[in-house]
Structures are given as C-alpha cells and as structure tokens.
Amino acid sequence: MTDVPAENHSPMPDSTQMPGSTGPRSRVGRLYAGVVIAQVLLIALSPLLARLIWLPFYFGLFFFLVGGLLVGAATFRIARPARPIGGRPLVTGAVAVGVITFVVTTIFEYRHFAHTVADPPKFAKARNAVVQSGASLRELEARAADAFAANLSQQYAPIAPVAYALWTIRQGTMNLLIPIGIALILLVAAGLWSSLESLRSPTPVTNLIGPNEEYDEDV
Fold it and tell me: How far apart are CA 115 and CA 144, in angstroms?
C-alpha cells in the first residue's frame, strides 16, 4: 500500500463557516428585518392607498397589489442572504403585514371619508344655507363628520374604524341629516335685520321718493 501524504488530506469546509453563509439566528434576523421594512413602507403608503381605494369599479384595489410588489422588492433584497426560507414563515410574514396594513389603512380611510363626507355635491341645500348666512363651511363639515361617526357607532360597533369596515362590507350607503340650526338662525336674523334696521332712525324712513322730492341721479 502506498501512504498518502498527510498534507494532501484537507477537511471538508463547514457550510456554517463559509463566507456569505448565515446561521439560524442571522437568517431569522434577516427575515424579521425584511418584514419590518415592508410594514414600515406600507404604513407610509397607507394614507395614499386609503384615498385610491374609492376609485370606480374597484380599481383602487389594484394599488394595494402594486404597493405589495414595491415593498416586496425591498424586502427581498434584505432577506435574500437568508435563503432558503421555508414557505410557512414567508406566508406568516406576508399575512401579518397584510393584516396590519389593512387595520392602518382602514383607520386612514375612515378618517379621510368622515372628513370629506360633506364635500360637494353632497348636502347642497345645507351648504347654500351656510354660504348665504355667512357662516363657516367648516362647521357644516364637522357636523357631517360627527353625524356620520354617530350613525356608525349606533348601527355597527362602538369603535369607529371597525364600524366603518362593517358598514362598507354590508351596506356602503347612509342617509345623513345634518343639523343646520345655526345657519337657520342666522338666516332668520339677517332677514329680520334688513326689515327692522330702519327702526334705529328717530324719523320715518322710506325707500320711496315722494312727489317733488329732490334726488341724485348717477349716470
């Protein structure tokens, strides 16, 4: 037998010690960091998604897919050194991010919808009354938002975003009566003032010119 020199025997490299490899903790950390980055980016996009959701024919839902693709690219680059990753943690992370994004977006969507529920052309008569009375339209918008929130709480759930989500799923329409008592009071008062303000004069006042009375003519 021929002896093989000892220097020709070299141990097989340990995969855990290879450059660029990641241990179990590092792999979990990479995946966790990717999921956190995805969630932060989607929360930042939530105000925009909450407005786009109301596009006609459910077209707004398409932007949720686009948002997932955009943040998914960033998440992939962060978690790539942790490959291979099992399907279960990937699905769990994706679902968790989806649920949190839904909650955050629903809150933004509810607040946006409530604050714009009185936008034109809705409540045209009430808006005209407020404008004619010289009152602020912001008060009308605030009253509409309060009435919307109150109806949601009474009919669906005490927590406004939850009630809003249930409303959009079950019905999506609502008849609101906006109290415009202040506007009505101002209108009545303005009418009375225009008729009675001449009572401040100690002598009779009229807007008619009598016979042989002097008058100025503007050309």
Answer: 8
At 22 the pLDDT is 54
Rounded to 5°, the CA angle 209-212-218 comes to: 55
Q: How far apart are CA 121 and CA 156, in angstroms?
A: 26
Looking at residue 53, what DSSP letter applies? T
**Residues 40 and 100: beta-carbon distance below 8 Å:** no
Burial classification of residue 56, based on how many CB atoms lie within 10 Å of its CB (0-12 exposed, 13-18 middle, 19 or more buried): exposed
The size of the chain, in residues, is: 219
Domain range summary for the chain, segments of one domain joined by +: 23-109, 124-188
Contact assessment for residue 27 and residue 86, using Cβ atoms and an 8 Å cutoff: no
Per-residue pLDDT of 110-136, as tens digits, reads 888 888 877 776 667 777 777 677 777
Distance between CA atoms of 74 and 67, rounded to whole angstroms? Answer: 11
Q: Which of 115, 143, 148 is closest to 129 using CA atoms?
A: 143
**Helix (H), strand (E) at residue 51:** helix 24-52
One-letter amino acid at 89 equals P
pTM summary value: 0.61
**Residue 181: Cβ within 10 Å count:** 8
| Cβ contact 81:23 at 8 Å | no
Q: In which residue are the tokens 């002598």 written?
A: 203
Contact between 184 and 140 (Cβ < 8 Å) = no
